[in-house]
Amino acid sequence: MKRIENIEKINEILLNDGVVAYVTDTVWGLGCLPSSEKAVKKIYEIKHREAVKPLILMSDEVYNLFDYVKQPIPKEGQKLIKKYFPGALTIVLDKSSKTPDYMTSNMPTVGIRIPDNEIFAELCRGIEGRVLATTSANISGEPPALTYEEAVKYIGGKADFVIPDYGFTAKGRASTVVGFRGEVPVVYRQGEIEI
Prior knowledge:
Blueprint: H1 7-15, E1 20-22, E2 29-32, H2 37-47, E3 56-59, H3 75-84, E4 89-94, E5 109-113, H4 118-126, E6 131-136, H5 148-155, E7 161-162, E8 176-181, E9 184-189
Parallel strand pairs: 1-7, 3-5, 4-8
Antiparallel strand pairs: 1-2, 2-6, 3-6, 4-5, 8-9
């Protein structure tokens, strides 16, 4: 069932180096197309975020993200993907050459996540490439937006478009972030999911 109105307008904003805000299952997100260096810079400016903090990649389906990470994914990573995607888990993997350095603060890795939120999934299905470079919708150091009203208040004047939530709410706890040393999972941030 299609809910998002203006999906053509949103796609146009993104294709023209724009930045949009949207609901996810955890907190509100702020994102752009990973191929737009200009838009990534804009996100850092909006958030007053240090360029040493990387953005992550999110989509509605994990196979949309496979080109951005080195294959094969560690076996433990594959198990976590099967068990927790879609959901509040960000998995940090070695990135492929498709993932731009400006998005990952020149780090060799990138975080990937599939939010469990129908509006976010519909947004991805309607945009070019179906992948967003993303971070939380807030000023760095401040609490992330949990509602449409908060997203508008915190970054509404700076983002190019804040997409309504159509009644789908963010739960409020950030995602758990897991990386790997070889095959061994390492928890970088404990969030919604207990690993």
